[in-house]
Amino acid sequence: MRDGSFQVMNIVGTRPNMMKIAPLMASMSASPYIKTILVHTGQHYDYALSDVFFEQLGMRAPDYNLEVGSGTHHSQTAAVMERFGELVTYRRPDLIVVAGDVNSTLACALVGAKEMIPVAHVESGLRSFDRSMPEEINRVMTDSISELLFTTEEAANENLKREGIPDDKVHFVGNTMIDSLARSLEMARQSPVKRQMNLRSKKYVVLTLHRPANVDNPVRLAETLEAISEIAREIPVIFPMHPRTKAKIQASGFHGMRDWHEGAIEAGIFSMPPASYFDFIGLVDDAAFVITDSGGLQEETTYLGVKCLTFRDNTERPITASCGTNFLVGTDPKSLLIHARAALQSTEQNHTEDRILPPLWDGKTADRITRVIEEFLFRRNVENMSEMSSKSLIQAVQV
Asked: Which pLDDT value is given to residue 1?
């Protein structure tokens, strides 16, 4: 504790991190006991993937940008560890807060553990039970070395208990991504993107694909897009594309993509650059349904009450399927087409899903986390002072 406050270092590296950390930064900044430090690893680094999210989420500019850029999983993780390690050696925060399951999350958590600085993991305990996913490795390892584990759903608590994590480290608090969504929804609904694209309410589909298992094999990727083209003959499919996915599609030989230009949109798959947070949420909120392999989008559609077809065999967010609007459709393009046609038919019949929000997805998660962090840091400070007093007493007696 320095200058009457605790130094808490918050880490962001990708867009999902920003959505999870933004409300927490706001909440902690209102605490008289916490001084926040914001570190951007630079894992996502261009304007569309980074700067615009800081602006729209109301986050201040990072205090430090490590500028690691892209790379293989191991090289990127190593680069973050090296640069973040130098920063931590210099700043020595009282707590490091990481979120989600990206390479930056694990790398910064490892540095904290090696430097004997406690780590808090936001969105702990989520498990797909698929170790072929790099994110799963990041989740499991980060949880194993964290002192504070903040969970979004009860299944995550059960996973951590099964892995032997002590109960007193685990805190079921809700979902900070939903905090960001709840705060931004009105602004997102005012986004002009739907008007610019001439899209009608519930008369289009939003598509996202980015996971290596779905986009790295060119034959498989082309087959998937051909299946989506079938449904796109009946309803426009809007595809905001990550640069990596765009490159993979170009390499696959698929030629059924159309570039979006302002004006009328008819049938087809329409690509567009990565959307800003407001634009993307505005699109998803009014879509007939969503096709995705994203984890966070499963949560956002659950909150919005929009049907989500998840193109995966598993999900680390089971609450979105049990009480949300998420449907696991597997990874067979034919199965995806069947489910998409059924979703389109239910939309045409004005069928609506009843929205059931998971427990504690109420937009107040960040405040709950801040209270736990304050209590943890005060308790740790008292324990450290007691230990120092004990050592001083022992030394005095020895003298």
From this structure: 67
Both tokens of residue 292? 């995705």
Predicted confidence at residue 37, as pLDDT, reads: 98
Using 70 as the pLDDT threshold, list the residues of the chain that sit under it.
1-2, 44-50, 261-264, 348-354, 387-399
Using a cut of 0.85, tell me whether the model's pTM lies above it.
yes
d(CA 230, CA 5): 58
Over its C-alpha atoms, the chain yields an Rg (Å, rounded) of 22
210 is catalytic: yes
Residue type present at position 216: D
Distance between CA atoms of residues 228 and 84, nearest Å:
42
- pLDDT recorded at residue 384: 82
pLDDT for the residue 353: 55
- The backbone torsions φ and ψ at residue 5, rounded to the nearest 5 degrees and listed phi first, read -145, 160
d(CA 320, CA 301): 9
The active-site residue, picked from 121, 210, 339, 351, is 210
What are the tokens at 56? Answer: 């729209």
- Give the Å distances, CA to CA, from 275 to 49, 90, 194, 300: 8, 36, 12, 15
Q: How far apart are CA 125 and CA 43, in angstroms?
A: 23
Q: Which amino acid is at 87?
A: L
3-state SS record for the chain:
CECCEEEEEEEECCHHHHHHHHHHHHHHHCCCCEEEEEEECCCCCCHHHHHHHHHHCCCCCCCEECCCCCCCHHHHHHHHHHHHHHHHHHHCCCEEEEECCCHHHHHHHHHHHHCCCCEEEEEECCCCCCCCCHHHHHHHHHHHCCCEEEECCHHHHHHHHHCCCCHHHEEECCCHHHHHHHHHHHHHHCCCHHHHCCCCCCCCEEECCCCHHHHCCHHHHHHHHHHHHHHHCCCCEEEECCHHHHHHHHHHCCCCEEECCCCCCCCCEEEECCCCHHHHHHHHHCCCEEEECCCHHHHHHHHHCCCEEECCCCCCCCHHHHCCCEEECCCCHHHHHHHHHHHHHHHHCCCCCCCCCCCCCCCCHHHHHHHHHHHHHHHHHHHHHHHHHHHHHHHHHHC
| Per-residue model confidence (pLDDT) at position 354 | 61
